[in-house]
From TrEMBL:
InterPro entries: YdbS-like_PH (IPR005182). It comes from the Bacteria. It comes from Myceligenerans crystallogenes. Residues 72-149 form the YdbS-like PH domain. This is PH domain-containing protein. It holds the Pfam family bPH_2. The keyword Transmembrane applies.
Amino acid sequence: MTSPFDPHDVTWSRVSPRLTAARLIPASITFAVPVVAGVVLALTVGRWFWLLAGTAAVLWVWTALLVPRQVRAIGYAEREDDLLIRKGIMFVSLTVVPYGRMQYVDVEAGPLDRRLGLATVQLHTASPGTDAQIPGLRPQEAARLRDRLASRGEARLAGL
């Protein structure tokens, strides 16, 4: 039986595993602040601040276990008439973007992404609610995908 999130005729392309590091580094910094603050306050003010440090540490461990699974769950597939983007573990989503509905395609990379050799392809359609982005691509793949999607979008739009 086929799932609505895994069509039988689709070969999924995966994002780079480096996306895990790109997501864990900021999370580690975010959780380090309350851990350090909790330890310092527990040692100087009172032992109840161990709760702050422990909670932040548990959340960091949970994030460190969850993020690699989330990254492995991200996939995209180019089909004849549309692009499929799948993501999520517990709450799975499948976004179908018809090439003829694309208005433009962006490639973005922040400082950490550039350092790790990653880029994000962002698709913009007529619908403001469409969340069509593919994070964690190598820059060469992002550029190739951008050019391919833009040319397919122009071809489909010209045919209308």
